[in-house]
What does this fold into?
Amino acid sequence: MSKLDELGLVYLEALKEVISTVTGIHLQVGSRESNNDFDDITGIMYLNGKKSGVLFVTAKTPDVRFLCSKFIGITPEEVTSDDISDTMCEFVNMTAGNAKLRLCGSDYMFSLLQPFVIKGNDVSIVTKKVTHVEAGTLTNGEVSISFKVVY
It folds into this structure.
């Protein structure tokens, strides 16, 4: 396994731990495939370091609504659009923070920057051909959330 493959596992485990800790929902690895698709809610954070990158956490609105309801302790019907955006920002922020701890002392150590959210179905991210992408999806069969980290 290459260092970059291991890097993908770091982010996958970080996201898995964040979701489990804040929602009580345990998700399993559904896929380690990378594609160019983004769901309609995507949290993003630039990872500023010796080897800079970008972290994306993406999911469908109904899945984020459900995870958000567990996260903040209200019913899915009470979850607002702002709650969904805030939740995705928190998920990407906590995933990056968890990964940062796991990568301490490595060439992939980075600073946390302000997360943000992009909403919509027609999102595409274009990178240079030399860019490395690691990706993964977590699911329990009913809810799915994915990440991509681009270096």
